[in-house]
Amino acid sequence: MHADPTPVNLLGLAQPELEAFFAARGEAGFRARQLMKWVHHHGLADFQLMTDLSRNLRTSLAVDAEIRAPEVVLEQNSTDGTRKWLLRLDDGNCIETVFIPEDGRGTLCVSSQVGCALDCTFCSTARQGFNRNLTSAEIVGQLWIAKSRLQPEAGQSRAITNVVLMGMGEPLLNYDAVISAMSLMMDDLAYGLGKRRVTLSTSGVVPAMDRLKDTLDVSLAVSLHAPNNALRDQLVPLNKKYPIEPLLAACKRFVAGKARKQSVTFEYVMLKGVNDRLEHARELVRLLHDVPAKVNLIPFNPFPQTRYERSDPVTIERFRNVLIAGGLHTITRKTRGDDIDAACGQLAGKVEDRSRRALRFARLEEGLH
User: Fold this and answer.
1) DSSP single-letter state for residue 338
2) Which of 30, 40, 48, 106 lies closest to 69 in space, CA to CA?
3) Which of 50, 173, 236, 296 is deepest in the core (most CB within 10 A)?
4) Comparing C-alpha atoms, which of 211, 203, 206, 212 is closest to residue 116?
């Protein structure tokens, strides 16, 4: 006697994949478009409620397919309106997703991995270690959940206007699932987000950046955090494999030939006494002088046992003024959601670490006491 096969989760399938699924069942391609609207426009998971599907199709889908998102374990609301969800996956690991409301826009920060495969020293997620990549359904499921729980403000057609893959994980180390998820986010049959409203943030996986350029037209953010290789090697160890020079060359290739002028957003976390001196600012101006760039200065968000401190506001302002005087469009990101550990670099979730990185940090801390 054979066990029943695991139902196929249709939540994360982009339109071509869903059309192939229906074709294999002898169904016409338009069934994919019908189902996408029910699932992503209307937030339905029950096939029996999808009334323009035939009764026989609805019955068969209920047997061997499903629409299943991660489970909401906890929802937290910040005093500034930021909301954070702790989501449990089938294997017991948990990830975090954050919604940040602003005037005229609402940004959802989405995770792409359970933990992070990289080891940036100033990031709480990195300290959790790494377990696995998320599936496309687990990535787009974060948007599906948030959309169902958020109401547009007066005068807005939607609560979520922008999505950034800037949560837990390095998106470009989970390439195929991330591409499927972003395709759904941008598909008019699903969430209909414009190409400038979906941003992928990377620490600089250069070959995958080039691959992305040729696959999907989205916005790009790069976690830079240092103006030279020696310092970036310490903060972002991936730099030892893909140093700043090939990284910036990939950034130029990414925006070259675009129909509309496009910039790369460079993220720069402000660490007291580490990368926040005026000489660092001047070095950054020289580094980015010929790159179509916007710079986001991010006040460091502390977490337990970190050795870093946040640069003070005066230091950040002086740093910013040097960049602006050097011709770089620069903003200082307002810290949001830090009272619920939802700010940039604070997402941790609950990770069954397979990298043993968390154990290494624990032993390091023991040696410091």
Assistant:
1) G
2) 40
3) 236
4) 203
Residue 133 class from Cβ within 10 Å (0-12 exposed, 13-18 middle, 19+ buried)? buried
First to last CA, the chain: 59
- pLDDT score at 128: 75
Helix (H, G, I), strand (E, B) or coil at 53: coil
Distance of CA 347 to the CA centre of its chain: 11
CB 263 within 8 A of CB 293: yes
Whole-angstrom CA distances from 143 to 62, 86, 157 are: 23, 13, 16
Please tell me the distance from the alpha carbon of residue 318 to that of residue 95, in angstroms, as a whole number.
36
State the DSSP code for 240.
Answer: G
CA nearest neighbour of 59 among 40, 69, 46:
46
Q: Are 252 and 291 in contact (CB under 8 A)?
A: yes
The pTM for the full model equals 0.89
186 contacts: CB under 8 Å, gap ≥ 6: 192, 193, 194, 195, 198, 216, 218
Among 168, 157, 117, 96, CA closest to 345: 168
Spatial neighbors of 133 by CB under 8 A, at least 6 apart, are 112, 113, 114, 169, 173, 174, 177
The number of residues making up the chain comes to 369
106 has which bridge partners? 101
**112-126, 174-188, 247-261, 329-343: least confident range:** 329-343
pLDDT at 359 (0 to 100): 46
Measured N-to-C along each axis, helices 206-213 and 175-186 cross at an angle, to the nearest 10 degrees, of 30
Distance CA 177, CA 73 (A): 23
Query: In the structure encoding, which two tokens stand for residue 108, read together?
Result: 């959802």
Burial class (CB in 10 A: 0-12, 13-18, 19+), 68: middle
Residues 238-291: pLDDT tens digits?
999 999 999 999 999 999 977 678 899 999 999 999 999 999 999 999 999 999
